[in-house]
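Severity: low
Component: inverse-folding endpoint
Summary: output formatting inconsistent between runs
Steps to reproduce: submit the following structure tokens with default settings.
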């Protein structure tokens, strides 16, 4: 991950900054500790590893994303999953075409499942004042805010923030790795990051940290502070607030983990603290009256409701997303 000096959207915070804000200046960051040899697959091994976590890849995709999905899966299989054989779960708000399912299933020996997102998990709720929401979208379009005029993008952000982990196909699993269409992994991964999460009691893993567009979240932090004030016992006493705020929680510094890559514990989102947190945010309507993204929502949730040592920086997983 690269270090930049300007706080513009799309630019990463530095490794040193992440180390200081999450781990603390005097502590050894966990990503500097070598991965134990026991987690690595033996060279030239052809057998499936004997020990695996209860985990799956999750990909949100449309039928029209087939080429990007194929590209990502080929990368994932070549770099990692042909050695570890974890299952895939594909989710779509529309039924997947048979041609999509047939093509995707041929790319892996692992189990592949295809699910439809329930309508109430995807579409704008009836409780949203559409006149107010449309006015907000128009204003964002005028100010050239990325995806500012898009309702489907807001549906996706809300779904990823509070509903994907509730899907029937994900209920059997404990951990997930979020994969997007059109990503490239440049390095072979010869150890199992799911086992790192499981054995070391990690609940959220990331590779990149960015600054969020301020125009998309003007009231988000005040809403977060309101929730914390009403629910102080739900906030972890050893949290990572210092990653989110430079003044003890008074203001939000806009740092967030880029959720296009996530390896996380589904129980973090299923737990009481995050469930109440999401419901609180959802009632405020900021996913539609503004453009709250799942990345800052997940980041704030992980930083507040987990211990800071439970957040893991997968520094060695090389990734680049292609924007088409």
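Observed output (run 2 of 3):
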């Amino acid at each position: 991950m690269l270090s930049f000096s300007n706080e513009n959207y799309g630019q990463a915070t530095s490794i040193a900054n992440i180390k200081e804000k999450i781990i603390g200046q005097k502590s050894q960051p966990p990503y500097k500790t070598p991965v134990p040899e026991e987690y690595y697959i033996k060279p030239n091994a052809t057998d499936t590893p004997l020990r695996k976590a209860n985990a799956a890849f999750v990909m949100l995709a449309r039928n029209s994303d087939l080429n990007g999905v194929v590209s990502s899966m080929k990368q994932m299989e070549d770099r990692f999953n042909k050695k570890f054989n974890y299952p895939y779960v594909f989710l779509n708000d529309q039924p997947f075409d048979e041609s999509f399912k047939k093509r995707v299933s041929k790319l892996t020996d692992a189990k592949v499942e295809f699910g439809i997102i329930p309508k109430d998990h995807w579409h704008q709720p009836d409780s949203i004042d559409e006149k107010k929401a449309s006015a907000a979208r128009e204003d964002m379009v005028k100010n050239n805010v990325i995806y500012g005029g898009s309702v489907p993008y807001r549906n996706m952000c809300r779904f990823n923030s509070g509903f994907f982990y509730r899907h029937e196909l994900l209920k059997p699993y404990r951990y997930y790795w979020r994969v997007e269409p059109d990503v490239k992994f440049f390095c072979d991964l010869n150890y199992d990051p799911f086992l790192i999460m499981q054995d070391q009691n990690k609940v959220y893993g990331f590779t990149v940290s960015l600054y969020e567009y301020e125009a998309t979240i003007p009231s988000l932090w005040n809403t977060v502070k309101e929730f914390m004030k009403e629910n102080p016992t739900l906030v972890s006493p050893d949290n990572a607030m210092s990653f989110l705020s430079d003044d003890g929680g008074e203001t939000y510094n806009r740092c967030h983990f880029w959720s296009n890559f996530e390896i996380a514990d589904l129980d973090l989102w299923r737990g009481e603290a995050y469930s109440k947190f999401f419901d609180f945010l959802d009632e405020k309507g900021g996913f539609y009256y503004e453009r709250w993204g799942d990345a800052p929502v997940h980041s704030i949730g992980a930083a507040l409701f987990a211990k800071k040592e439970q957040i893991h920086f997968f520094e060695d997983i090389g990734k680049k997303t292609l924007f088409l």
